[in-house]
Amino acid sequence: MFPTKSEWLAGTVESPVDANREIVDPHHHLWDRHDGVYLTPHLHEDTGAGHNVVQTVFVECGSDYLDSGPEHMRPVGETSFVAGEAARSVEAGGAVIAGIVGTANLMLGSAVEEVLIEHETRGGGLFRGVRHANAHDPSPEVRESHAKPPPGMLGEATFRDGYVKLGQLGMSFDAWMFHPQVPELTALVAEHPGTPVVLDHIGGPLGIGPYAGRRDEVRSSLRKSLEALADHEHVHVKVGGIGMSIYGVGLKQLATAPTSDHLVATWGDDLRHVIDTFGPHRCMFESNFPVDKQGCSYTVLWNAFQKICTMAGYSDEEQSDLFSGTARRFYRLRPGGASE
After folding, report:
1. Backbone angles phi, psi at 90, to 5 degrees
2. Is 90 exposed, middle or buried (0-12, 13-18, 19+ CB in 10 A)?
3. Are the beta carbons of 136 and 164 closer than 8 angstroms?
4. Do residues 264 and 304 make contact, with C-beta atoms less than 8 angstroms apart?
5. Which end of the chain has fewer surrounding CB within 10 Å, N or C?
6. Strand 127-131 versus strand 96-102 pairing type
7. What is the C-alpha to C-alpha distance for residues 166 and 189, in angstroms, rounded to an integer?
8. What are 221-279's pLDDT values in tens digits?
9. Secondary structure of the chain in the HEC alphabet?
10. Where do the domains of the chain lie?
11. Region for residue 265 given its phi and psi (left: phi exceeds 0; alpha: psi -120 to 50; beta: otherwise)
12. HEC string of 82-98?
C-alpha cells in the first residue's frame, strides 16, 4: 500500500538548522477548492514547524475570484479573500501575511489601472503588485500556466502598456515563466526599467516533456539567460520552486521524502549560481508552498537553504538579505508584521 502525501512527508523529520534566523517567506499560495484546501491554519502548521518565519507574502493562484461582474474585474475577489486570511494570521499569532500579489490582465493596456486601484482598495494596505503568469511552452507535454498566456505575450504593445502602468502606480511585477522565455523578460525590462521585477522560481528550468533528461543543457541555457538578465539592477530573483515536479528531478518518486542534504546535492550549485549572479541583496529564498509540498517538507526546504548558505560562506549580512531583507525591501514590508 502506497503512503499518503502526509505520511510520505512525515517519514523524513529534521530539526531546524538555525531556528533563530528570521525568515520572510515571499511566495506562498492559499486556496479552498475541489483539489484541496490550504488556508491560514495550514500555512501556520508549516511556518510554525520550527523555523522563525515571521512574515509571508501571498502570490496569486486563481483563488476565490468574483463569480459575477465584468470578467476583467473578477480577480479582485482573490485580494478580498486573502486580506481576510491576513487578518486571521494576525489574530492567530503565527507568521503574518504581510503582502499580497494579485493578478490583473495586463493585456488591457493602460486600462488595467481600474483593476489595480480596486485591488489596492480591497487589499487593506497589503496589495503590492501583480503576477500575470507568462509560463508557456509549445510542447503539449508541458502544462501551460493557469493564466493560459499566448506565446510572446511580454512583447505585445498592450501588455507593455499595462506593465508600465504598474510602475507608475508604485507596484511590482512577479514574472513566472519557463527557462526558454527568460530572454523575453530581459528585453522587456531593458526597454521599460520603471517597474520593479522579481523573477519567480529561479527562471523555471523545465525537466519534463522535450526537456526530460537534458538537465545539463537546460542549466547551461538558463545560466546564460540569467547572467544577461542580471545586468538590469531593478530585477530580483526568488530562489526556490525546487520542489515542483515540472523541474524533473524526481523528488516525488523517491520512496521516502528527501532530506535537506538531498536537496542541497540536487540544487545547491544552481541556487548558488543564481545568488552569485544577482547578489544576495537581489535574491530572496521562497517556499512556493503548498505547491512545493509535492517534493519536500517546509522544514527540510529551509534547512536546505540554510545549508547552502553555510557551504557557500555567505556572511551574516548576506544571509539576512536572502532570508528576509531582500523580500522586505522589494515588497515594502516593515519588520514585525506590518507593511508600509
Report:
1. -70, -45
2. middle
3. no
4. yes
5. N
6. parallel
7. 13
8. 999 999 999 999 999 999 999 999 999 999 999 999 999 999 999 999 999 999 999 99
9. CCCCHHHHHHCCCCCCCCCCCEEEEEEECCEEECCEEECHHHHHHHHCCCCEEEEEEEECCCCCCCCCCCHHHCCHHHHHHHHHHHHHHHHHCCCEEEEEEECCCHHHHHHHHHHHHHHHHHCCCCEEEEECCCCCCCCCCCCCCCCCCCCCHHHCHHHHHHHHHHHHCCCEEEECCCHHHHHHHHHHHHHCCCCCEEECHHHCCCCCHHHCCCHHHHHHHHHHHHHHHCCCCCEEEEECCCCCHHHCCCHHHCCCCCCHHHHHHHHHHHHHHHHHHHCHHHEEECCCECHHHHCCCHHHHHHHHHHHHHHHCCCHHHHHHHHHHHHHHHHCECCCCCEC
10. 24-331
11. alpha
12. HHHHHHHHHHHCCCEEE
Band of the pLDDT at 336, cuts 50, 70, 90? Answer: low
Q: Which residues pair with 115 in a beta bridge?
A: none
User: Residue 173 forms beta bridges with which residues?
Assistant: 130, 197
Is the model's pTM score more than 0.90?
A: yes
What confidence score (pLDDT) does residue 2 get?
54
Inform me whether the pLDDT recorded for 339 exceeds 50.
Answer: no
Provide φ and ψ at 129, rounded to 5°. Answer: 175, -165
Length of the chain equals 340
Superfamily of domain 24-331: Metal-dependent hydrolases (3.20.20.140)
Asked if 233 and 280 touch (Cβ cutoff 8 Å), the reply is no
Instruction: Render pLDDT for 43-85 as a digit per residue (tens, 0 to 9).
Output: 999 999 999 999 999 999 999 999 999 999 999 999 999 999 9
